[in-house]
Design brief:
There is one protein chain. By secondary structure, the chain is mainly α. The chain is built from four helices and two strands; from the N terminus they run H-H-H-H-E-E. The chain has a two-stranded antiparallel sheet. A hairpin with an 8-residue loop joins strand 1 and strand 2. Helix 2 crosses helix 3 and helix 2 packs across helix 4. The radius of gyration is 12 Å and the shape is globular.
């Protein structure tokens, strides 16, 4: 499951605003704001979380597995840095 900090970090890596993510994911701005709040994406439907993840991954973000000791994270796909 995505976390609120992962979504914020992914947007930052892409230089996207919340409205940009809303448009790319096909969701409303209030939904994006709520997913990035303390409530997090856990309060959203699975379809909404998937839409956000898909939009960010299509733009070049890779979500890092949370099973390792360093915890959840994000990075840009190779070749998109800089």
């Amino acid at each position: 499951m995505l976390t609120s900090p992962q979504i914020k970090a992914a947007r930052a890596l892409l230089g996207w605003s919340q409205p940009t993510l809303a448009k790319a994911s096909g969701l409303s701005l209030p939904t994006i704001v709520r997913m990035e709040s303390i409530l997090g994406p856990g309060r959203s439907s699975a379809d909404n979380v998937e839409a956000v993840q898909r939009a960010l991954e299509t733009a070049g973000v890779t979500f890092l597995d949370i099973t390792n000791e360093s915890g959840p994270g994000v990075r840009l796909k190779r070749g998109l840095e800089g």
